[in-house]
Design brief:
Bound molecules: Phenylacetyl coenzyme A
Strand content: under 5%
Number of strands: 2
Order of helices and strands: HHHHHHHHHHEEHHH
Number of helices: 13
Length: about 300
C-alpha cells in the first residue's frame, strides 16, 4: 500500500474514534510526537517527586508524612507507566533516561521552583496537581491506546493528590495568622508557574497543530489554561486567598475569569534550563542514576544467569 493510502486509513481510524495501537501502522511524525510528549510527561513525574520529597522528613505529623509519602510514590508509579507507554513506540528506557540526564528532553517547568515551606505541599497538590488533572483528563481520551489507558489510571490517583493538597490548604486557611501568611506566600509563588504548565500560548505552540490534527490533544493550551483558571479562582476566593494578578476579572458574558499576561520571558528561561532549580534537579537525577547503577547491573547479571541456566 502506498504512503498516501496508509495515511488516509490511519486518519480515518482516528476520525472514527478508534485507538491507534503499537503494532498499527503510523506516520513517523505521529510516532515522533508521541515519544517526545509521553517521555517528557514521564520525566516530569520523576523530577516532580523532588520538590515534594524535600518535605517528607519535615511533615508536621505522622498522618501528613504518610500521605505525602504515598503521593510521592504514586508519582514514581506514573513515571513508570508512562515510560512503558513510550517504549511501545520502539524506544528503549535507557535511551529515554539518557535524554533526560543529558538535557535533551524537557520536563515540566513547574518543578524548577523551590519548595520553601510546608504550605507549598498543600499548594502543589491543589494548584499543580489541579492543573495536571485538567490536562490529563483530556489526554486520557487521546488517540494512542497505551497513553490513553495509562492516563485513565493516573487521573484517578491525581484526583486523590489534588484532594490531599486542597485539604492541607483548607486547614491552613483556617489556622493561625502565621499559617495564613505562609499559605498566601505559597500561592503567590506557585500561581503563575501553574499557569505556565499548560505550555506557550496557542499562537506560539509549534506542536499543537499536528497533535490536535491526530487527536493526541483534544483541546489547545489556551483553552485548557482558561478552564483551569475558571475552576481555580472561585476555590481561592472561597478560601479567602488572593491570586497575584491585578488584571484578574470576571467577564459576565463569556463567564471566563480573564487574567493578566504570563511572563513568557520567565517561561522560556525555565524551559531552557535557567530556572531557579534546574541545575539542582538535574544533579539530583544524575546522582540517583549513578547510585542506582549497581542495582541495574545486578538485575541484568541475574537475568543473564537465569537465561544461561535455562539454555
Ligand atoms: N514545561 O508546542 P508546545 C504533573 C515545551 S505532570 C516544559 O505547546 P506541546 C504531575 C514543549 O515540550 C506535568 N516544557 O508543546 C505531578 C515544546 O518543547 P519541544 C507534565 C514545556 O507538546 C504533579 C515547546 O515547549 N504534564 O504535573 C512546557 O504541544 C505534582 C513548545 O510547546 C505533561 O507533560 C512546560 N510547562 O504542549 C507530578 C502532560 N510547555 O518538545 C509531581 C503531557 C511546553 O518541542 C507532582 N504534555 N513546553 O522541545 C502535554 O500536555 C504537552 O506536551 C504540553 C506542551 C501542554 C506540556
Amino acid at each position: 500500500m502506498d504512503e498516501a493510502k496508509k495515511i488516509e486509513e490511519f486518519e480515518a481510524k482516528i476520525a472514527a474514534g478508534e485507538k491507534i495501537e503499537p503494532k498499527d501502522w503510523m506516520p513517523d511524525r505521529y510516532r515522533h510526537q508521541l515519544i517526545r510528549m509521553i517521555s517528557q510527561h514521564a520525566h516530569s513525574e520523576i523530577v516532580g517527586m523532588l520538590p515534594e520529597a524535600n518535605w517528607i522528613t519535615r511533615a508536621p505529623n505522622l498522618k501528613r508524612k504518610m500521605t505525602l509519602l504515598a503521593k510521592v510514590q504514586d508519582e514514581a508509579g506514573h513515571g513508570l507507566y508512562l515510560y512503558t507507554a513510550a517504549e511501545t513506540l520502539g524506544i528503549s528506557r535507557a535511551e529515554l533516561v539518557d535524554q533526560l540526564l543529558t538535557g535533551k528532553a524537557k520536563y515540566s517547568s513547574v518543578f524548577n521552583y523551590p519548595t520553601l515551606t510546608w504550605a507549598d505541599m498543600g499548594v502543589i497538590g491543589w494548584l499543580v496537581d489541579g492543573a495536571a488533572i485538567i490536562n490529563q483528563t483530556m489526554l486520557a481520551k487521546s488517540s494512542y491506546g497505551p497513553y490513553s489507558r495509562s492516563l485513565i489510571r493516573i487521573c484517578k490517583e491525581e484526583n486523590f493528590h489534588k484532594k490531599q493538597g486542597y485539604e492541607i490548604v483548607t486547614h491552613m486557611a483556617q489556622g493561625t495568622s502565621e499559617q495564613k501568611e505562609m499559605l498566601q506566600d505559597a500561592v503567590n509563588r506557585f500561581w503563575w508557574p501553574s499557569l505556565m504548565m499548560f505550555g506557550p500560548s496557542d499562537k506560539n505552540s509549534p506542536n499543537s497543530g499536528e497533535l490536535m490534527k491526530w487527536k493526541v490533544k483534544l483541546k489547545s493550551n489556551d483553552e485548557l489554561r482558561q478552564r483551569y483558571v475558571n475552576m481555580t479562582v472561585p476555590q481561592a476566593h472561597f478560601l479567602g486567598l488572593t491570586l497575584p494578578d491585578d488584571d484578574l476579572k470576571h467577564n459576565k458574558e463569556t463567564e471566563n475569569w480573564e487574567f493578566g499576561e504570563i511572563d513568557w520571558k520567565e517561561f522560556y528561561a525555565v524551559i531552557k534550563g535557567n530556572g531557579p532549580c534546574n541545575k539542582e534537579r538535574m544533579r539530583a537525577r544524575q546522582n540517583a542514576h549513578e547510585e542506582g547503577r549497581w542495582v541495574r547491573e545486578a538485575a541484568l547479571a541475574y537475568a543473564h544467569k537465569k537465561k544461561k541456566a535455562a539454555s
